Amino acid sequence: MDWRTSLLPFFLALLQQAQSEGVFELRLRAFHNDLGKDDQGDCCSGVPDPQSGVCSGVCHTRFHLCLAHYQVRIESGQCTFGVGRIPVIGDNSVFFTDRGSRNPLINSIPLNFTWPGDFSLIIEAWHVEGDNDGVGN
């Protein structure tokens, strides 16, 4: 028996299908909404100061992340690669580096496909009223 023939079953036993996975991580350091207003320019809560425009109340901020194919014009809801949701974590200004052992805030989106290269990342900050999960932007 040829030595190559005798080693062939050994090498065939070592062959396995390879599978890869990855993670897209976003590290947020800070978020500022100095006036305390939503995307419509209205106070999240309270009333605006007539001179400065700063609202007397605060916004309760949560984040929504969307990872999608690269788009020149971004369409809402087209998160082809994945989404990430961060619950309410602060008010008008959030400094993630002040969060002790959990700093900075990291949000991971698992990837189980071949990376396409270019992508669009959409980050939305939402004001949450009471216990609702996303009223107002």
From TrEMBL:
Annotated protein name in UniProt: Notch ligand N-terminal domain-containing protein
Database matches in Pfam families: MNNL
Signal peptide: 1-20
Phylogenetic classification of the source organism: Eukaryota, Metazoa, Ecdysozoa, Arthropoda, Crustacea
A cellular-component GO term for this protein: membrane
Organism: Darwinula stevensoni
Segments forming domain Notch ligand N-terminal: 21-131
Biological-process GO terms, alphabetical: Notch signaling pathway
Entry keywords, A to Z: EGF-like domain, Membrane, Repeat, Signal, Transmembrane, Transmembrane helix
Keyword Coiled coil included in the entry's annotation: no
